[in-house]
Structures are given as C-alpha cells and as structure tokens.
C-alpha cells in the first residue's frame, strides 16, 4: 500500500522532533511555488496529487493567499484535512472547506497564556501612557516637555472583555490579579466555572460602562468591524481599548477618528487590519501603544503551537480525525 502524503505549507521552526514522527508515517511534500498563481499551477500540474493532510502556517498565506473556493478547487480532491498552526483561522474560508469536504483544525489553548500576557501588558501600558514616555526617551528628551499626562491604575477599573474564549478567560484571570473589575460579553453566557468570576453583561452595557475594553473575539464574516463608529459613540468617553485578536474586528479608520476626538483616550494594539501595513493615523498618534503581532512570539508558545498542529496531522494520517476541529465543523467530527 502506498504511504500517505502530507503537504507542508510554510515551515517547521521548532518542533523538529515531533515533525520527524510525521516523516516516519507519511511522505512530506513541499511546494516549489513562491506565489498564489504558481501554487495554483503547481496543484494543476498534478505535483500534489494524493495528498490527504495539509499542515499550514500563518505566514504561508504569503505564498498561497487565502484558502478559499478558488484554491480548494485547484487543490487535489484527495485533501481531507487542513491543520492550521494558529488559534485564529480567518485566512481560511471554513464554509468553502466544508463544501469541499475538508476538515480544519487550529491550535486553541496553546496560545492562551502568551497572548493574554501581551494583552495585559498592553492594558497597563495604554493606561500608563507608556508609549509617550518611550518615544520621548528614545528621542533623547527624557520624559519630554510637557511630560506624558499621568496615567491610571488598573485597580478598581472596569475591564470589559469582548469574546470569552480561551484568551478572554485567561485575560480575565490575570486582570483580577491587577484588581480590575471584570465583565464580559460573549454570544452565549459561559457556565459559572468558566466565567473566572467575571460578570456577564450585554454588548451595549460593555461598551457604555467599561473603562478598558479588551477585544478577544475571533475574526470571521460575522465579527468584521464589530467595533466601528456607532460603537465608539456609545463608549464611555476616554475609554482605553486593547486588541490582540485580529485588526479587522475593529474599523481602524473609525478608531483613528475616535482617538482624535478623545472619545478613546489610548489604545494598545498587537494586530492591524492590513498587516503588515498600519494606518498612518495610528503610527502618528502617541496615544497608540503598538507591537507587531507578537502575541504568541515566545519560544515556548511557538513550540507548543507547532506540536499541537503536528498532533492534528498525526491523528489525521493515522486515524482520519482531528484533535481540535474548528467549532464551525464540530458536527463533522468523527
Ligand atoms: O495570532 C495568532 C494566532 O492566531 O495564533
């Protein structure tokens, strides 16, 4: 019997030992293409025929583009599993995968601590106007003149978490240690043991009453621009917003306006609508604390994520199932 074939889109940077166990059970194929047109041509040439499981990285989008109907039409029909290394899978059109009989997995849990850590760092940094001090210091002006406005303590402030998945719950637990009063809104209320003591409120209450708003919801067609001009208008004036989810859950141009008017006093951002491009209005505003999508940028977490995604590949090859199928496809799990 011929050996199973696994397609590697992107590369393995850390979990080499785990990956070697895949080479033991399958032939690994790597595409030669360097862009989407070449990749589609390579698929159509038959070079990837027989592949049943695909491992992909976030950065592989730079070669293949989005995993959508066009790409799925070009890929061999033998592909049944797509194992994404990352928690967020907005680069993958899930309904199109379902229609093409392709099951998709992501790496939930593995990213929670590292992303929540950066989330908390951004909350404190934005509350304390640290970006302004950092800019002045780097320009050789100590705190600058005038110095940054005095910041705010997190203790006693209302933190509103939008999206109470693994990362949102981790942020809630950590924010409690900083004395924050944590509330959340989620499509459905969590069971009490998962709530981390956070109070469930309506979306509108979360916007109106939060001192700090933390965006922890996934990006999909339903959540794009969840925070846009009408939502900024409802917020408590002077709110602080932090986003470690995906840039496009918030309308970046509307955020620039809300910062300019003072409706939003400061933001901490790890993610942007059109990475790696950043809206010039954000770069120019010293009330914006920014990092370049580094939420999971630690050795330990990158290792964990690769191992998790490789576990999915192994299970798909050996047993025809996934360890962490995406929620939209839960009903398809064998
Ligand atoms: O952004 C990081 C991830 O989706 O894992």
Automatic annotation (TrEMBL):
Keywords assigned: NAD, Oxidoreductase
Keyword Transmembrane included in the entry's annotation: no
Chain ranges of the D-isomer specific 2-hydroxyacid dehydrogenase NAD-binding domain: 120-295
- Asked if the record carries the keyword Oxidoreductase, the reply is yes
The family database entries (InterPro entries) matched by this protein are listed as: D-isomer_2-hydroxyacid_DH, D-isomer_2_OHA_DH_cat_dom, D-isomer_DH_CS, D-isomer_DH_CS1, D-isomer_DH_NAD-bd, NAD(P)-bd_dom_sf
The protein, known as: Glyoxylate reductase
**GO cellular component annotations of the record:** cytosol
Gene3D superfamilies in UniProt: NAD(P)-binding Rossmann-like Domain
Listed GO MF terms = glyoxylate reductase (NADPH) activity; hydroxypyruvate reductase [NAD(P)H] activity; NAD binding
Native organism taxonomy = Eukaryota, Fungi, Dikarya, Ascomycota, Pezizomycotina
Domain of life of the native organism: Eukaryota
State the family named in the UniProt similarity comment for this chain. Answer: Belongs to the D-isomer specific 2-hydroxyacid dehydrogenase family.
